[in-house]
Design goal:
- This protein is of the alpha+beta class.
- It is built from eleven helices and 13 strands.
- It is globular.
- The structure holds adenosine-5'-triphosphate (ATP) and magnesium ion.
- Magnesium ion (MG) binds near residues 1, 2, 248 and 263.
């Protein structure tokens, strides 16, 4: 999880929830009891390692179980971290679904199970060894990610399975106060959003404005209108494929011959172009200072292929960079501005 911030604009939502769980040795003792019971082993054959870092209040561990292998644990206590616990349980249900449709151990790591005890939610998945996260971006990793996304997006779902994943995705979105599949945008809302977006366009400077009132990305006078028109153009993009929705780099790991996705809590139905466009823009941003031309070309060819999806994303990036959110969101907004710049560059070239 993380893209949750990037997509929903709810950056504040995590503040103050990061502290707490990690350095708590009592917590680890409590988790150990549950995990030993789950694997039905004694203390001797098990080694726990804390995995530090991350943005959420969920604690993460690597656990090695003698004779069984290594596992990645994601843990939260409902009593102190209710939302994280909810999200871990939801992730467990989504892993069950992904298992059923044949995607774990391939696109996603193998899912072992969810422990639910005393309000503790513990997600147990295969630990991916020798995996590098979020890059490096080269011809090989771009090809690997392309293959993994194709596999995910072409998953055959029955009508029942579609309903199931829509329900799971809605329960996560609903809990986070995001729009669910039921949401239909009214004409009034559409118009309001259009006006909001145009406020971020500085006609005299012919560029977009960030929250500090600085102009970035110079374009021709109709650029903002064009982005809006393309984003709402009649070429409707089908929203019926299984997609990741959260292409945050920390959720993409590369082994020697595979790209894995982890953290599927936002998996749902949508358009492959959404995942591809987000990935493409982020990779190009990563390659912005330097980076092989051949790799950039490949990224553009494979991922940046739909101008409607790109325009929608630009709207989101521009809006997020323009909102007045206060100092604590500076880095988050700067990141969005950088994404907007890259995406706008592609948008113009794609014409
Ligand atoms: N199966 C795995 N094996 C090894 N490492 C993993 C595995 N799953 C995740 N990781 C590592 O842990 C990190 C966080 O995992 P994940 O994305 O599931 O958590 P999260 O919900 O995003 O939480 P946070 O944002 O706090 O890290 C990943 O970026 C990756 O580096
Ligand atoms: Mg993550």
């Amino acid at each position: 999880m993380f893209q949750i911030l990037l997509r929903s604009g709810q950056a504040e939502f995590l503040e103050g929830r990061i502290e707490g769980m990690r350095e708590n040795s009592k917590l680890l003792d409590r988790i150990k009891i549950s995990v030993l019971r789950y694997f039905d082993v004694s203390n001797d054959g098990v080694v726990f390692d804390d995995i530090v870092g991350g943005f959420t209040g969920a604690a993460k561990y690597k656990v090695e179980v003698e004779g069984r292998g290594s596992y990645f644990l994601k843990v939260a206590d409902e009593k102190t971290h209710e939302l994280d616990a909810f999200l871990i349980e939801a992730e467990g249900k989504i892993y069950d679904f992904l298992d059923k449709v044949g995607l774990v151990g391939d696109v996603f790591p193998k899912f072992d199970g969810l422990i639910s005890e005393d309000g503790f939610k513990i997600l147990v998945i295969d630990y991916l060894d020798n995996v590098s996260w979020g890059g490096p971006w080269n011809t090989k990793t771009v090809e690997l990610l392309d293959r993994t996304l194709k596999r995910l997006h072409t998953t055959d779902l029955s009508e029942g399975e579609k309903k199931e994943i829509i329900k799971l995705a809605d329960s996560v979105r609903g809990r986070l106060g995001q729009k669910t599949s039921e949401y239909i945008e009214s004409e009034v809302d559409k118009k309001k959003k259009r006006e909001e977006f145009l406020k971020a366009w500085d006609v005299s400077g012919r560029g977009f404005l960030n929250a500090k009132g600085e102009i970035y990305f110079n374009g021709n006078k109709d650029l903002a209108e064009e982005v809006l028109d393309v984003a709402s153009s009649a070429t409707k993009v089908k929203q019926t494929q299984l997609i990741m929705h959260d292409m945050n780099f920390a959720n993409i790991g590369f082994s020697k011959d595979r790209a894995y996705l982890v953290d599927p809590v936002f998996v749902g139905l949508g358009s492959e172009y959404f995942d591809r466009t987000v990935a493409g823009v982020n990779i190009l941003l990563g390659l912005r200072s330097g980076g092989d031309l051949e790799v950039k070309k490949l990224v553009t060819e494979r991922f940046l292929v739909n101008r409607v999806a790109l325009a929608k994303l630009i709207k989101y990036y521009v809006d997020s960079s323009f909102k007045k959110l206060g100092m604590s969101q500076d880095a988050w907004q700067k990141f969005h501005q950088n994404c907007a710049e890259v995406a706008l560059g592609v948008f113009i070239e794609m014409k």
